[in-house]
Amino acid sequence: MSAPVLEIKGLKTQFQTRQGLVKAVDGADLALGHRETLGVVGESGCGKSVTALSILRLLPQPAGRIAGGRIIFNDRDLVRVSRAEIRRIRGNEISMIFQEPMTSLNPVYTVGFQIQEVIRKHRQMNKGEARTEAARMLGLVGIPEPRARLNDYPHQMSGGMRQRVMIAMALSCHPQIMIADEPTTALDVTIQAQILDLIGRLKEEIGMSVFLITHDLGVVAEICRHVAVMYAGKVVESAEVRELFAHPAHPYTVGLFESLPKIGGRGGALRPIPGVVPGLFNLPPGCAFQERCFKAEPRCRQEPPLRAAGADHMVRCWLPGE
Amino acid sequence: MPRLEIVSNLGRNRSATVGLLIIAVVLLVALIGPRLAPYDPLVPAPLDRLKGPGPVHYFGTDSLGRDIFSRVLYGTRISLVIGLISVAISLAPGTLLGLLSGYFGGWVDSLIMRGMDMLLAFPAILLAIFITAILGPSLPNTMIAVGIVYIPHYARIVRSSVLSLKEQLFVQAIAHLGGTHARILGAHILPNALPPIIVYATLGMGTAVLQAAALGFLGLGAQPPQPEWGAMLSEGRQYIQLAPHVAAFPGAAILLLVLGFNLFGDGLRDVLDPSLRSR
Amino acid sequence: MPLSYISRRLFHLLLILLGVSVLVFLMLRMIPGDPAQLLLGEYARPEELARLRTQLGLDRSYPIQYGIYLQSILRGDFGTSVRTGAPVVDEIGVRLLATIELSLAAMFIATLLGIVAGVISAVKQYSVFDYGSMFLALIGVSMPIFWLGLMLIYLLAVKFPILPMMGRISMGLEAPAVTGLVVVDTLIAGQLGACGDALRHLLLPACTLATIPMAIVARITRSSMLEVLNQDYVRTARAKGLGEAVVILRHALRNAFLPVVTVLGLNLGLLLGGAVLTETIFSWPGLGRYVVDSLMGRDYAAVQGCILIFAVLMALINLIVDLLYVLLDPRIRVHA
Questions:
Q1: Residues A269 and A164 in one domain
Q2: For the CA atoms of chain B, what is the radius of gyration?
Q3: How many structural domains compose chain A?
Q4: Using CB atoms, which residue from B122, B123, B134 is nearest to C30?
Q5: pLDDT tens across B49-83, in order?
Q6: C254-266 and C192-229 helices cross at what angle (nearest 10)?
Q7: What is the number of structural domains in chain C?
Q8: Is A312 within the bounds of a domain?
């Protein structure tokens, strides 16, 4: 991996809820290489979205807080920089797009206004220049007649179009990193492919890195260079995409692949992973996956070590290598 | 929602608990108040005029020397009765009109709702003043006036529940099975439309008490020497510079009772019909 | 905004007003007591009574009386007040402006303070401020405002005499009427002292009248803001690096306005109704007090005129609220 532009070390993010403390992210380590795309995969509730929100400190307040760890970006620890500083970074050096294009845009303002808003916030431009720039961005993300569309309200656009607007907004200050939290999940399959292509193309054009959250291994295979698998708030396996797809080491990752339908494969019935993601309130001691794991052993009751399972391939499990 | 669960949820709702407590206290006072009253609420005592609150007269005395504490105690019964009867007067025709309007739709709906619009075209208190002026100022007429004014509110609420209930499968199924209109309305739609009605009626008690007191204050409601809180306030107004306590205590009593209904109504709404929240 | 929508609303409004006029006409005829008798006193001679009845048109049949009435209304003639002998239109005109001045001031106080309290309560949910202001709001909606008015008078005009008890302006400070709003008129006349005096007169009644709407606005703003603050687009606004003030005021509050406007519209009747009580307490020479006095004095023409004006006001305000709603929400603007 090239020198990382963003490094997450031992991140712990917690939520104070009525039922008690939820450790949504519990010591996650991730690294995003310069101009690379990192895919973070896992089931819902595994902490991948919370990790993404933690980077820009966008956790729901006052329930959520970062309890420990570091997020290093350009020699700064985003966990500790001032509020003013993180606001200068948001939308400017690191931007973010979300899963729900239908609700992520403000319904009472035109898309033009919403794009210009971020441009004028971070770039020294007057109204006219910002407007021209906003139209240019809309054109860049493949929206026809961008000048005219500036005056449209979000409800006049389809979901795919709105996600393009979100991307235009996210890219309008030429960020170094774009965080995309399930950007295609809410869209039709055909639109999904278009949006993924768009992200991939613009990443090259702008020269940024992409931090992609998804539950879809297909999406990962398509556009990611590296991949990290999360389970119950921890990164359980990380590797280059090809390596991980060829030699999945963690039983959970293996399960994820087996639960996928294979094109042309004759594997017969899909094999879902038994059980559900454990409630984050009362995790078993040791490996969080042990109760669903087909290879679980007594020692899984102790915290499994992080060890190498190949070149640039780490896995958090007792099993491999023996 | 099963009944037991409603009760236990209400018990856990702080607003409902406090409201119910206030209502219970007021109810108790209404029942046994006359026995607690140290003085006759109606007999003037010219030597004790406009005495301030103290150990002899807890709330002081009014311009005729009557004990305000005793009068407030007696007035509790009047205000509770006003609340109950006024709401009953709006509730019965309002519910019926709402049921018919929502269920039959078409010209029945238009006719009823335009009529309701007409009543809603006036500020409520103005309409109430107007009706009392026609009927003549008295306590029963106050209740009738306040009752009539709020009929459209119940009609609208019931109508909107009926409109959504009518479309639901179970109602349509019964209609196909040959249920009569009366049976469908009475046995199936009405019971399911009850939660918002109950919530609104509880909050409506508070509104009714306030409106009736306003009429009493304007001299259109209860007539002297009846110890109605609004009328007492009206009298206190003349002495506000000399003896503010004459107005202060009956007003505080109104506030407490209305607060009780509002708290309980808010709690009920949270438990019975969360969709109505924020209104 | 489509013109057809507005014209449809105006037509509907006209129908309602026509119905209201019939209703008012009939109701007034039901009021016991003969206005002629009332005017001339107990000992009037029968021929005098008969002459006055003819003069007032009271001897005609109801439909004809109504027809004459409607015709004259359309000419802008609301009849003559039997108490003062002045044309009702003139009497109402002056008082209407007094009521408008009071209501505007109350509305201003209610929306401003209500929205501020609601926004802070929502942003600092479960804080002391939140609990405190929501408790006060609950008290506000539970309070008889005529009682509040009296208590304010006692406290701020009697016990600590810092504000005047009643009236619109102190004697001798009146400015020539241009707009009919005393505060504005004194400003136009350049009499700052008099303007201050008028404002001081306005403060107590306006606060009294503002209480209930303020409490309602605060409660609705809070719950509406709480809902909006959880929306994805608010998170988007934060993710853009916008300051917290911009996020809350521009992105959240703007959306939270919609239910607030609706509820405000629904409660304007409360404001106008409250004016009746507030004007009585503070001897404010407005329409509310006038209608009560006219009713007591069996002044048919005056009552009819007032009630119609009240109905027109209600309808106009509702129309404005609807239009405001359409303006605020682009989703309706395009589809309406």
A1: no
A2: 22
A3: 2
A4: B134
A5: 888 888 888 888 888 889 989 999 999 999 999 99
A6: 110
A7: 2
A8: no
